[in-house]
Amino acid sequence: MTRTLYTIYTWLIFVPIFVVLTILTALITFAGCLLGGERIFAYYPGMIWSRLTCYLALCLVKVRRREYINRKQSYVFAANHQGAFDIFLIYGFLGVPIKWVMKASLGKIPFVGAACRAAGFIFVDNSTRKAAAKSVIEAEKALKNGASIAIFPEGSRTHDGKMAKFKKGAFQMAFDQHLPIIPITLNGPFHVLPVHSLNLKHHKMEMIIHPPVSTEGMDIAHNSLKALTEQTHKIVYSALWEEYK
Predict the structure, then answer these.
(1) How confident is the model at residue 139 (pLDDT cuts 50, 70, 90)?
(2) DSSP assignment of 142-195
(3) Nearest to 170 by CA among 180, 185, 157, 161
(4) CA 213 to CA 1: how far, in whole Å?
(5) CATH of the domain at 182
(6) Which phi and psi (to 5°) does residue 92 adopt?
(7) Chain Cα centroid distance, residue 73
């Protein structure tokens, strides 16, 4: 499909359908969670929405090494953040229920914000230390209840496709709860829809799931948290396409 045809397809077909799907998904999620079905409605509507979004965008998706995930184990999933389609790639194709740790600003999106709150997702507010600490407590509460969380340790989307340093918040959560971290490498979302762009592009995407990194036996007093952060960053970086290194 030529670039011109794809642009026409994007605005005449993809965008209208995506908006309708998003509103329907938010309403179903909100209602289902409100009625006590959080275990089901916090995951499946969003998973289906994410998959349909990738299919509607005509993006080929490839997932590698999903066998490293034990569905009976809680994890902290830590991925690089290339673009908006990172969310669809992880939510749609990871294959296990997750709680998102997301920016507080996303909670202001009509319909979506209310649905995310109903689903028990964690909004990170870095406006004050007190607010940031509260976000960590909420995330750790979700982990204690047996959930897995997904987070982008870079904190924001890349501007050039290359990885920035990882912040330590996600690793502190994993350390406090003695949970393994699963590094995830995302390739391709930067080309599909990079930050500050509304022009969708047809491009393949890939998600590579790495073996869990254990936090057992770590001693935070001996720079273990820093080492864990750097180790995870190195693992994620190792599977990036060359153009992103």
Answers:
(1) confident
(2) HHHTT--EEE-TTSS--SSS---PPPSHHHHHHHHHT--EEEEEEESHHHHS-T
(3) 180
(4) 41
(5) 3.40.1130.10
(6) -80, -30
(7) 18
Helix (DSSP H) and strand (DSSP E) numbers for the chain:
10, 7
User: CA 19, CA 12: separation in Å to the nearest integer?
Assistant: 12
Scan for tokens 């749609």, then name that residue: 92
Of the two residues 113 and 169, the one the predictor is more confident about is 113
Whether pTM exceeds 0.90? yes
Domain of 199?
Answer: 3-244
Question: What pLDDT is attached to residue 140?
Answer: 74
State how many domains the chain has.
1
* 177-211: pLDDT as tens digits: 889 999 999 999 999 999 988 899 999 999 999 99
Q: Mean pLDDT of all residues in the chain? A: 92
Side-chain half-sphere exposure of 6, counting CA atoms within 13 A: 13
Decide if 45 contacts 135 (C-beta within 8 A): no
Helix (H, G, I), strand (E, B) or coil at 96: coil
